[in-house]
Amino acid sequence: MNRPVSDEVRHPADVPTRRDLLRLSAALAAAGTLGSCRSTGSGKSTPSREKNLEVWKRGRGTPYATGDLKMPGVCQLPGPYRKHKFPDPDKYRGAKPVHGMCQLCSTVCGITGWVKDGRVIKVDGNPADPNSRGRMCARGQAALNHLYHPERLLYPLARVGKRGEGRWRRISWDEAYDMVASKLQAVQRSGKLEEFAFHQGRSRSNDIVQRFLRAFGTNTHLNHRGLCSAARRAANLTYLFESDWDLGDYENAKYILNFGSNMFEAHQGHVAGAQRVQRGRFENGAKLVTFDVRMSNTAGNSDEFYMPFPGTDGAIALAMAHTLIQEKLYDDQFFREWANCGIDALWEQIKAYTPQWAEKTSGVSAVVIQRIAREFAAAAPHATTMCNRGSSAHINGYYNDRAIGLLNVLVGSVGKQGGWCWMFTGGVDGKRFPAPKGPPSPKTPSILVDPPEFVLSNVWNQMKVGEIVYHYLAKGRAKMQVYMTYNLDSPLTWPETDVTRAVLLDEEKIGFHVCINPFLSETASFADLVLPWTTFMERWDVDARGAYNLKPYLSMRRPMIEPLGESKDVREILPELARRVGGGMEKWFPKELDQRSYMAEWVKNVPFDRAKYTDSMAFLEDVGAYEDPQQPRYYQPYLRPLDDKAMKGAQVDEKTGVITKAGKGIGIMYRGKPVVGFKTPSRKLEVHSEFVVMTARNQDTSALIARSGAKAKRRPPSHAGHEYELSPWPTYMQIEEHVGLADDQLVMTSFKWNVHNHGRTANLKWCSEIVHSNPAWIHPDTAARLGLKDGDWVELTGHRSKTIDKLSKSLQLGSGPIERKLQIPVVVTRGVHPRAIAISNSLGHWAYTSVAQALVRRESGSARRGMDADRMRDADWERNMWWEARGGAAPNNWVRNTGPGWAQNQILPIAPDVISGQQSFHDTVVNVRKLS
Amino acid sequence: MDRRSVLELGAAGALLAATGQAQGKQGVRHDLFQPEEHYRERMRAPADGKRYGWVVDARRCFGCHGCEVACKAENDVPLGKYIRQTIYHDYEKPQGGMARLMVPMACQHCEDAPCIKACPCGALHKGAGGSVQIDYDVCSGYAACKDACPYGAIYIDPVANQAVKCHNCTHRIDVGLEPACAATCPSEALYFGDLNDPESRVSKLKAKLEREGALAQLRPEKETKPRMWFASDKHRNIAQWEPKVPGEGQSYGPDSYSVYRWKEPR
Ligand code: SF4
Ligand code: SF4
């Protein structure tokens, strides 16, 4: 039974004794208390009021201590303590709506801040945003916690003492700018421009960052994509070349086949995608079937849910493909016209992958696999797969997603209404709305950006391989004179914390580290200089996400209020820095180009109603987002005809029908007519990819690229010596270390909570109140085998990947156990596969405000100098925070549902898949030992 | 006593049971009710022509907690206290396989509200559209309302020492906004509006669900005539998660978020 804590237990001192009240109430009742009808907050006096005042005075609590900054989101109770105007009928009167975009995850939902007296009093979703349609998740709703956090960093801090020691002095921006500028000038003088590395976590405001880095002359612009979505993107690109991001048309679908995606809680398209899945189901009759190792909310809410063995999604998908072909359920015409291979050739590859084989591999019954394949085919073309890190963040993730993609090709739902779709842009349509032009890309190569061991990381898009950055530095394969981190939480989110920590502490490897962040994060704690960054409610941006309406859109973020304290956005920091560094880079950042004019220049092509607005900027400021009503949805773009003008001077290859112009592919003949086709070398869906095979072998792919007409590249000469044999087909790759697990071994899987993003939300009290503690999920069978019950503690040892070590010796990752162990309590649940152990990310902070650390005590060290700790108090936190681990978080004293949780990445190896550079988050074999 | 055991009722309930206070049929706390003339007036909704009500499509809810945090942000609800809360319930399907039910819970805005009947001070009353409201010039934190509410929807603010509950965001409605929770819900599980207006989304949905026989109410045996209806079907029905909803004398507590509490009661 889920028994809520009663009020009496919580705050005994604040509540009058029941007996007191009973006595009084009896008297009152006898006197008769007739109330009249009132509407909210009328404040009218009633006959009973005088008497009740007595009762109330006895019952009053102690007031909250407050700072002199009135903080929304903090229970401010007027003296003498009674509630006053609750709810306040005047709250929204005179409040000004200012639109923007959330940035507490990468979905960037449209938001509206209600601004009154210079303060944001509430953040709502902006219904004008065509993607999120005014909806928001818990993270976004906690935006006020982010903006008005009592421990927000508001002034620049320079370290005193040793790096990582946690001693700081407050400095002026002037001093901070000069400090960074002099370090960057030293890089310029050294001639090794690539040794200035810029590393952003969430990659937004890319335009200004790129402008700065290019002007400086470095290419070392690092990211986190390898830890995110590289395998899925590479698999999509193999099929499409045009796009790395599938956007299932869930709203119009009849069948959604989900391989491990947790759309309802996380995902890059979370709020936008999830609402469309539910509309598809409840308004269009779609069925949602989920395969996942753990029962996420997506899995738990699905119409059907199956738990396969970790990393076997591809096996299930291949077996479904087997059924589709064997039972002739595939769309023969579509396949003939649009797949770049014959069905017989494919069958040769697939025929061994029988449902019975898949049952043995995945544990999901062959009968179920066959039935679902049939249902999927029957619903086509209104049928789409859905997947993300669940299937792709594996050593075999690229192949898993290739196999999953194949199902859409077979049933012919590719690009169809209700099917598996994509867009020509993953964000703002840069052709129509180009960011103001910046300097050309410098030629200095960077091994950190294009590490040679990886096949597909940089051939289409620059995905890079974020998770090897510290490993490369540790091995001496690269060096940084200046490391600028921005919105990056690598100590908490990168695998193998100890490697990250050691490198960040090493002044030989990283000469100078400047961190730009709104909080003193774990990353900041290893910096030499920390610059206070504005929140997403205090800065400018133009942005968009994969558009689920299949029409490009854009949203604008603009400051809702003046930045608090001395915080600044990179749009202010980087230009000023450029001007101080000089050497020519300053000319890209003229002082006249203030932020608003820069934005106005960017959005100047956005159409607007001339009767209502003076320019595009005024329109966007008023509404917040733009979607072109004229633009058709991006359905079946491959059928778009090539007109006579396009065909002028074009050549048609007789055998393949591929149309080229000046050696470049522009289309393909389709039923006797020229159409655009797919933007691949074959101009068809590449079920068989010669391109990846040749790329892996380091062969010259320029002829293939030319025919695709896409902007792909071949691997540079620096990749020589790192050749592999890849399969051109969707295929299954067995993860070696998953075979023959010992009794005490489980596969560790990772997941994200619906109230957290990877590393930046544990400081939000309303989110952390819901989830702050993350015991490891184990199945009752495991529990029985290892003698464990709810709340018992285990010690976990993580192992590096044998498969990866074999594939690339030069990476020198090794295959032994990770030295650091993780001690963590367990929760026993049928919601996880018997051979898996599920541990969430996002928790286990050791910095990032006392909220993230679940400490009632506030920051008391010299870091306070960077905050406005005395004025910005959160009395609610100080008084009511209830989940501090008062007995400590040690196994013997720990009380359930308390403390800051545990960081899984301590025992998670650096494990990049050599095909795409994808970090395999869900494959680590761990030994489980019960702690007595 | 209702069918839940004394143990399951929790500390507050157990205390009440142990002190032998009379509970009516199905646990309705008639003993707490004031004489009818004390509340007759307050039970009458203002004649604004509106009938506010809710439909909660628990089939759609995916437990994102957006509504709850929206509510905290809108109402400055202190940590450890909740006006609304989403309950998780993991269970094994009859046909095999695991599933999770997620249900957003809050005040049911009962037409025959026991909290109004129990309030000795005259604070609880019907406001706009029949919303059950609290007059803070009057509320003394006596907490009879909390003891009487069969859905655990009221908490006592520790500082004001006054009762707090969902007020239908009347301050937002008055300026043309939806309640904070309903506005944000990404699964579109929360519907609020005027049931007197047949064209409102909530009326239409309610009518549709009624036709489909998919409408249910929580603890009808309490005879409170809730203004909140839940969409449910044979896979996701109220009887499954009802035991997880707090009852008389209880408020939503932080523990219901704990992953240890998601399982079926054992
Ligand atoms: S999904 Fe949530 S955190 Fe992400 S952008 Fe939308 S509201 Fe913000
Ligand atoms: S916002 Fe909607 S989906 Fe999220 S918990 Fe609340 S009711 Fe459920």
Sum up the structure in keywords.
heterodimer; A: 932 residues; alpha/beta; Rossmann fold; Dimethylsulfoxide Reductase, domain 2; seven-stranded mixed beta sheet; 32 helices; 29% helix; 15% strand; disordered N terminus; B: 266 residues; alpha+beta; Alpha-Beta Plaits; 2 domains; two-stranded antiparallel sheet; 9 helices; 25% helix; binds iron/sulfur cluster
What's a quick, concise take on this entry?
The complex is a heterodimer of chains A (932) and B (266). Chain A has 932 residues and is α/β, with parallel strands linked by helices. Helices cover 29% and strands 15% of the residues of chain A.
What does this structure look like?
The complex is a heterodimer of chains A (about 950) and B (about 270). By secondary structure, chain A is of the alpha/beta class. Chain A folds into five domains: about 15-60, no CATH class; about 155-230 and about 430-540 and about 565-595, Rossmann fold (3-Layer(aba) Sandwich), CATH 3.40.50; about 240-410, Dimethylsulfoxide Reductase, domain 2 (3-Layer(aba) Sandwich), CATH 3.40.228.10; about 635-720, no CATH class; about 735-930, Barwin-like endoglucanases. Chain A is about 30% helix and about 15% strand. Chain A has 32 helices and 27 strands. A seven-stranded mixed β-sheet of chain A has the order 5-4-14-13-12-6-7, sandwiched between helices. A six-stranded mixed β-sheet of chain A has the order 23-25-24-27-22-26. Chain A has a four-stranded parallel β-sheet with strand order 10-9-8-11, sandwiched between helices. In chain A, helix 11 packs antiparallel against helix 14 (about 355-360) and helix 11 runs parallel beside helix 17 (about 395-410). Chain A is globular. Residues about 1-55 and about 65-80 of chain A have low confidence and may be disordered. Chain B has two domains: about 1-30; about 35-260, Alpha-Beta Plaits. Chain B has helices at about 5-20, 35-45, 65-75, 115-120, 145-150, 170-175, 180-185, 200-210, 240; strands at about 50-55, 85-90, 100-105, 125, 130-135, 155, 165, 190-195, 215, 230. Chain B is globular. Chains A and B meet through helix 1, helix 2, helix 3, strand 3 and helix 4 of A and helix 1, helix 2, helix 3, strand 2 and strand 3 of B. The site of one iron/sulfur cluster (SF4) has 16 residues of chain B, from helix 3 and strand 3.
